[in-house]
Design brief:
By secondary structure, the protein is α/β, with parallel strands linked by helices. It contains 10 helices and 8 strands. The strands form 2 sheets. A 4-stranded parallel sheet has the order 2-1-3-4, with helices on one face. It has a 4-stranded parallel sheet with strand order 6-5-7-8, with helices on both faces. 45% of the residues are buried.
Length: 300
């Protein structure tokens, strides 16, 4: 998906270009951004958000020197690249990202001028629609991203092609197990209303027949309006929802206050946007357990 159809995006791209020229004029290299072929001959990859970096490391193994776009620990929706980071991103052998997640990253990716890029949103199979960037919360889409990453790495490093393909197949097997677990766990919950602080779980909701209602939308930084809060209140009451799920990206204060008003519980769901801890499968299983506890599901 190309972001540069609108004027805002083109302006951002120009700003990024200007920053890049300034960096070049100052004689700075990729520096701490990790771009360009590694000194040891490994393939350099920059990836965002954290689950995609994790995926690149699994598929690439020891042949790849992978780092986070913009560094680790930030909010994936709000990545703002510095000029050296833009330079690093244009210089890396491969970039793996989700188009539409961060304007700053999209603008920098546009400067790569045909160099290899995997846009994880391109694998969206239409389960929800291509407007939702939270592809990494869907195990089956992650398996497809792994295959795309393997193909892209093989174009940069043909000698590693077999290893990349084999690793991506291992990922696919693990993701199939996770998806089967989710299907079994959430089958009794079909039709339940999933009230979340930010709409990161649309793919999961779409696969398992849940109705996702967000206090904020897909972007957690858009403050909910009073009208939105009233609408969510109505939905919670009408659906008999028992829990409002919050995460650390969207303000938990709003979710907590709303839950208190409504007399329902709050529970944490991890959108994996800041970190993958302790690992992808464990974090996804913890989310599944929270959903089973908090959603209105048929008795087992
Ligand atoms: Zn998000």
């Amino acid at each position: 998906m190309s972001c540069c159809a609108d004027r805002t995006c083109r302006a951002l791209a120009v700003a990024a270009t200007t920053a890049l020229v300034a960096v070049a004029a100052a004689g700075c290299g990729a520096g701490d951004a990790g771009g360009g072929s590694a000194d040891d001959g490994r393939v350099t990859v920059l990836a965002t958000p954290a689950p995609l970096l994790d995926l690149v490391q699994r598929v690439g193994g020891g042949r790849v020197d992978a780092a986070a776009v913009g560094g680790l620990g930030g909010d994936a929706h709000a990545v703002e690249l510095t000029p050296p980071q833009v330079a690093g991103l244009t210089d890396a052998d491969l970039v793996v990202h989700v188009g539409g997640l961060s304007n700053s990253v999209d603008a920098a990716v546009a400067l790569r001028d045909g160099a290899p890029v995997v846009d994880a949103l391109a694998v969206d199979d239409g389960a929800v629609g291509s407007e939702d960037p939270h592809v990494w919360l869907d195990p089956l889409l992650m398996a497809d991203v792994a295959a795309d990453v393997a193909d892209a790495l093989a174009t940069v490093d043909p000698d590693g092609a077999d290893a990349y393909t084999a690793a991506a197949e291992d990922v696919r097997e693990e993701m199939a197990v996770l998806e089967a677990e989710a299907s079994a766990a959430l089958a009794p919950c079909r039709g339940a209303t999933l009230v979340v602080s930010h709409e990161a779980f649309g793919y999961l909701a779409g696969r398992h027949g849940l109705e996702q209602v967000g206090i904020t939308g897909v972007d957690p930084h858009v403050e909910p309006t009073p009208a939105r809060l009233r609408a969510v209140t109505e939905v919670v009451r009408a659906a008999g929802a028992r829990t409002i799920f919050f995460d650390e990206v969207a303000s938990p204060d709003v979710a907590t206050a709303l839950a208190e008003d409504l007399g329902v519980a709050v529970a944490a769901l991890d959108p994996l946007e800041v970190a993958v801890e302790p690992d992808y499968a464990t974090a996804m299983r913890a989310n599944l357990a929270a959903l089973r506890d908090g959603l209105v599901c048929d008795a087992a």
